[in-house]
Write a structure and sequence with these properties.
heterotrimer; A: 471 residues; 14 helices; 45% helix; elongated; C: 355 residues; alpha/beta; GMP Synthetase, Chain A, domain 3; 2 domains; eight-stranded mixed beta sheet; 11 helices; 35% helix; membrane (chain C); Spore_GerAC-like_C (chain C); lipoprotein (chain C); palmitate (chain C)
Chain lengths: 471, 362, 355
């Protein structure tokens, strides 16, 4: 049993103290160093005296048994003057063991700060607050989860963020009914607008600089204790394709990379279905020079194109899954060896064609370019319905599937705001940071989708100084 | 019933997309043949005339909407009483439902002739209508979203006509106005049938924010479509010789056969696949308008009306078997549309005007 | 939400029921060229060329069948193959000389009706039989590609005027223009373009030889690249390249009997001149000679057309665009007597890197 109660005797006044605590939660060293000297060697006559004498700020007297229970479980000491007392002094003596700050693993960037969130909510708030040291940065704390009682903090900048957005978030978190809240992704899945959609509707990030930047835009952040990922909302589809590194590079370069990313995603989703559609139904589309190559590559293969494609796609998925489960050293080898060997061997064996192998490999590579991990998974998934439709109805099927996906995206909302903004409803001014990124001096207005209270970020005229020739 | 919650409304700019997209439908693939038969190489003038007339009709439509405070069906009711007005509105619902299924069936025919001869009508019809239901159930905002994308994405097709220029002889259009004016006007009448689609504004006007400001976008839309059709007609007339054009059922598709891109040889397949995006909003809006009228006339939920109308459309597509029948229903539908827009609407405007003078207001 | 699940289920059901006939790429025989010849009184012999793709060089295979109509012929051929024949990729269609003289419209029309055939298809008349030509082995990538490249290259850079299925049909249906097609012949292991075959409606009535092709192209089409060698006097030749031409045709007089003026303007660059320096005087004389040659040869061609009652240049259509209420019938009644005047203007620009 790790709940302990010990009796101590104060030297000076002669009073006995009953100290109760839950051993794993309490930091014995801090207790021994900071608390016990005060408890045992200072003169006092009541709990109030002790409280005032202690250098620890988070100490208060309580007689509410639920509160006491909760705090004991968090790592507080419960000090009573008599064994049967209901009232006692709660002193914070929490053990804090956490990871040291490391570089972000998922959203690594070559330039820019390399701090990443860790599991402790306090540290995360520290990382955030030092980047926005103003008083309007509001933090609203709640607890979620009947068993885990996880601390959840909703952060926003008062005066900039739209109160509706904030209200929506707070309300939804309030209504969460769950027992063990492990990670922020649990919260995402529960409070999302459209739970059944494979598209994520809240952005998650592990970079404090990103959170600081979006809070300045007017978004709302949700931090969960125990999770290094922070949620941001409301968000749009276009944001999932923008890496934070875009903001550290020159805007022309950044825009170019963004466009490449978008192109590669489209390519990744569509290339295999187009292969299936063309080989099955539309041989006339293939240019004559390519026809020879394709036919010779498919000559020995006993399967129809759809089976070929599915075989290769599933192989790549297998490789990915296997690589993810194995420990790093072994995993890397499997990845490379598996890829090369299986690929080459299957071409030699005549199970797939080399053209298709290249296409599938490129498509897989292209799907890795998405900076946000969650949308990468969605893209992997998206490919399969397209392949199915291409098999059924050729190019018509591809167009049809595209319409279905588009309709689905039109239905999605993020915290009530349309998910496809700034494309639809068209918000022309927001396009400055969608597919391309205009220079910072042009970005003096906050995104319209957020309907912020204060749309102007900085004085545009001051930012753009104009000088005449040789002035 | 004319006011709709603000969160369901769209900005007036969207009117542009809805109207342009509605006017450009299956007709674009084959309209040139009909008008060229009547007016020969002066057919492009007919297109411009038809476009001009559509602007006039649109002005009348907007006037009527102002009079009726945004609710067109109410106008029918007020002027003719509940039963007759209701009957007239039901006819309108029938017209929109018919529009939906005729567009769908015509497109299926194009696919069956050009791409997949063994595509079963009921298969595609069923799947397509399910997609339309999925869209329309989301309400007008989702439908407009589809309009927006289904105009922007296929717009690249405009650039494909560049490849056709090599084989055009623009001197074939000369001399201008070589045909008697009566034929040009007659062809203009035939052209109006292709440009139908903007009458749907009568139904979706309440869904536009600041509706009275949408008029300029609607007119811009008509102008764009007119120019587009006129340019396409000019191109077609220069690309084909007269008798050759008469033998083409779908001149636009035949023109696409000439397009050759570095990676793609036969472009018309891509054109036909993209055409799915262009007719999708047409069918959706037909279903939406039709079910909305039903909702306002009868005590049914719009969702139920939608399902019923979609089912009716589905069965109707099965009844049409070959090209002759497709042509036939197209002609009937177009005639009905023409009489509605060019005869009924002006009459209605006249009646409204008189009633207004007599009664003071409607 | 329940309506959405219902929709989803409905979708799946609708989709899974669908199955279309596939034409999987390596399970079909892709025709790359066809040929039609006369085979006795009422019969047609059809030949199809199928590339056989192998690593490295592509081989060819031909199949022939005889049948009363064109459509039947291609159907007949299906009996002879294990993999279905598909004609979506046909690039060239050849017609034997005798068949061309009889009339080729039915064989062109079937391409027109078939939705899977493109309108960039090249048509040509063979001096000989199409079957024999298609049986040859040309080029490394297969005969089909060889033939289409041959025609394409000659049209773009040499003396063949622009022509393909679309243009053939366009001129066929036009009242004021007669079609023409390239005229080719098999010479050993090569195929050569030997001229242009002229048609009245759909029957071949005349040919233009290689020496006159240049002048025909200038009159019928425009030149934008290409080389031509003219003979100055006796042994001396001058080779002009980067030729670009423009033709202007004007009409004057009454619409039933107009005076036609054909003006041809030509610009070029000297490529080869053996006789020393290309001075200003030399240039002028070359220009004059060239002009004179163009004038006489083109006029001779046009006169020939008038005599044979064919109009491949399309004067009828051009006249229709100049006059109001034009009637082709009246125009062609007087066609053979119409005065046609040809003028030419040659400009030789610079002389390359040396003088």
């Amino acid at each position: 049993m790790d709940f302990q109660t010990k009796v101590y005797r104060n030297d000076t006044s002669g009073l006995y103290l009953w100290v109760s605590y839950i051993k794993p939660m309490v930091d014995i060293e801090t207790v021994a160093r900071s608390i016990f000297p005060y408890l045992f060697h200072r003169p006092f006559s009541s709990l109030e005296d002790i409280r005032q004498a202690l250098p620890i700020d988070d100490a208060y007297i309580s007689s509410d048994p639920n509160d006491v229970k909760a705090k004991l479980l968090e790592g507080y000491l419960f000090v009573r003057l008599h064994e049967t007392d209901e009232t006692g002094l709660l002193i914070k003596a929490q053990k804090t063991l956490e990871r040291t700050l490391t570089i972000p693993e998922v959203e690594f960037s070559v330039v820019g700060p390399k701090e990443s969130f860790i599991e402790s909510l306090e540290t995360n708030l520290y990382l955030l607050r030092k980047r926005i040291p103003i008083d309007r940065l509001t933090v609203k704390m709640t607890r979620v989860g009947t068993l885990s009682k996880t601390k959840v903090a909703v952060v926003y900048i008062d005066g900039i963020a739209n109160p509706d957005n904030v209200q929506t978030v707070l309300q939804r978190i309030e209504q969460v009914e769950f027992d063990e809240m492990i990670d922020s992704s649990y919260i995402v899945q529960i409070i999302s607008d459209n739970r059944h959609s494979p598209f994520p509707q809240l952005l998650d990030t592990e970079r404090p600089d990103r959170v600081a930047a979006v809070l300045a835009e007017g978004k709302v952040a949700i931090m969960v204790d125990g999770s290094p990922h922070v949620l941001i909302g409301p968000t749009t589809l276009v944001e999932f394709f923008s890496s934070f590194e875009d903001y550290f590079l020159n805007w022309t370069i950044a825009s170019f990379f963004r466009l490449i990313r978008l192109f590669s995603v489209t390519f990744s989703i569509l290339i295999t279905p187009i292969y299936v559609a063309t080989l099955n139904y539309h041989y006339e589309l293939i240019p004559k020079d390519l026809l020879g190559t394709l036919i010779t590559s498919r000559r020995e293969i006993p399967f129809p194109p759809i089976l070929e494609v599915l075989f290769l796609e599933l192989t790549i998925e297998l490789l990915r899954e296997a690589g993810a489960r194995l420990p790093t050293k072994v995993g890397q080898t499997i990845g490379i060896v598996g890829g090369i060997v299986i690929g080459t061997a299957s071409v030699e064996a005549g199970l797939t064609s080399n053209v298709l192998l290249i296409l599938v490999a490129l498509a897989a590579l292209a799907s890795f370019t998405t900076p946000v991990y969650k949308i990468g998974n969605t893209i992997r998934l998206m490919r399969f319905p397209f392949i199915l439709f291409a098999e059924m109805w050729g190019l018509l099927g591809v167009a049809f599937c595209f319409c279905i996906v588009m309709t689905h995206l039109l239905y999605l909302t993020s915290l009530g705001r349309p998910f496809l903004a700034p494309l639809y409803p068209p918000r022309w001014r927001d396009l400055k940071d969608a597919f391309i990124r205009l220079p910072f001096t042009s970005q003096s207005k906050r995104p319209e989708t957020l309907r912020t209270e204060q749309p102007i970020r900085f004085n545009r005229k001051k930012a753009k100084e104009k000088r005449d020739i040789d002035e | 019933m004319a006011s709709v919650a603000e969160r369901l409304q769209v900005s007036p700019f969207m009117t542009f997309f809805v109207i342009v997209s509605m006017q450009i439908g299956v007709g674009v693939l084959g309209f040139q043949r009909v008008i060229a038969k009547t007016a020969g190489h002066d057919a492009w003038i007919s297109v411009l005339l038809a476009g001009a007339s559509s602007h006039l009709i649109l002005i009348v439509l907007y006037w009527l909407l102002q009079q009726a405070d945004g609710d067109f069906l109410l106008l029918h009711q007020r002027l003719f009483g509940r039963w007759v007005g209701g009957a007239l509105s039901s006819l309108l619902a029938l017209y929109f439902a018919a529009m939906a299924f005729v567009v769908l069936r015509t497109y299926i025919e194009v696919i069956q002739v050009w791409m997949f001869p063994d595509l079963k009508t009921w298969e595609f019809s069923l799947a397509f209508l399910f997609l339309c239901l999925y869209i329309t159930v989301g309400g007008f905002r989702v439908v407009v979203g589809i309009y927006f994308f289904c105009l922007i994405i296929p717009s690249y097709l405009l650039f494909t006509f560049w490849f056709v220029l090599d084989y055009t002889d623009f001197y074939q259009l000369l001399p201008i106005l070589d045909h008697p004016p009566s034929t040009i006007v007659k062809a203009a009448k035939q052209m109006t049938l292709t440009m139908l689609g903007y009458e749907t504004i009568l139904l979706f006007y309440p869904f536009i924010k600041r509706g009275n400001q949408s008029a300029k976008w609607a007119h811009a839309a008509l102008l764009t479509t007119t120019l587009f059709y006129a340019l396409l007609t000019v191109l077609t007339l220069a690309y084909f010789s007269e008798k050759q054009l008469q033998r083409q059922i779908w001149p636009t598709l035949t023109m696409w056969k000439m397009v050759e891109l570095p990676f793609i040889e036969r472009f018309e397949y891509i054109g036909i696949a993209n055409w799915l995006l262009i007719i999708l909003p047409n069918v959706c809006l037909g279903l939406w308008c039709s079910s909305r009228i039903c909702k306002q006339l009868f005590p049914v939920r719009q969702k139920t009306a939608l399902l019923v109308i979609a089912a009716i459309c589905f069965f109707s597509t099965l009844l049409i078997h070959d090209r002759k029948e497709v042509d036939f229903v197209n002609t009937i539908l177009n005639r009905v549309g023409f009489y509605f827009l060019y005869i009924w609407i002006p009459c209605l405007a006249g009646i409204t005007y008189i009633v207004k003078k007599v009664r003071g207001n409607v | 939400m329940s309506i959405r699940t219902a929709l989803l289920i409905g979708f799946t059901v609708a989709i899974l029921c669908g199955c279309l006939r596939k034409e999987i790429l390596d399970d079909i025989n892709i025709e790359s060229a066809v040929g039609f010849d006369e085979a006795g009184k009422e019969k047609i012999r059809g030949t199809v060329l199928i590339p056989v793709y192998k690593k490295g060089e592509t081989a060819n295979k031909t199949l022939t069948a005889v049948s009363p109509t064109a459509k039947d012929v291609l159907e007949e051929l299906q009996y002879k193959t294990s993999e279905p024949l598909v004609n979506g990729s046909i690039e060239t269609a050849l017609y034997g000389k005798r068949l061309a003289k009889r009339g080729i419209f039915p064989f062109v029309d079937q391409f027109h009706r078939d939705a899977s055939i493109g309108t960039r298809l090249y048509l040509a008349v063979v001096d000989g039989t199409a079957e024999r030509l298609l049986e040859g082995r040309y080029g490394r990538q297969g005969s089909g590609i060889y033939l289409s490249n041959l025609l394409k290259q000659n049209i773009e850079q040499r003396d063949l005027p622009k022509t393909n299925l679309h243009l053939f049909l366009k001129t066929y249906y036009a009242d004021g223009k007669d079609p023409f097609l390239p005229y080719i012949r098999r010479v050993g292991e090569d195929v050569q373009v030997i001229g242009v075959a002229l048609f009245r409606n759909d029957r071949m009535v005349d040919t233009i030889g290689r020496s006159d092709m240049f002048y025909f192209k200038i009159a019928a089409d425009a030149y934008s690249e290409g080389t031509h060698t003219i003979r100055l006097n006796r042994q001396h030749y001058v080779s002009i390249k980067n030729i670009s031409t423009k033709r202007t045709i004007s009409f004057s007089g009454p619409k039933t009997r107009p005076h036609i003026h054909v003006h041809l303007a030509l610009e070029g660059v000297v490529r080869e001149y053996k006789r020393g320096a290309f001075t200003f005087d030399v240039r002028k004389s070359v220009e004059k000679t060239f002009e004179q040659q163009i004038r006489s040869k083109t006029a001779a061609l046009l006169r020939r057309f008038q005599e044979k009652h064919i109009d491949p240049i399309g004067f009828g259509d051009l006249a229709a665009s100049r006059y109001r209420q034009f009637r082709h019938r009246d125009f062609y009644k007087n066609y053979s007597h119409l005065p046609i005047r040809v003028t030419a203007e040659v400009t030789i620009r610079d002389t390359g890197i040396i003088e």
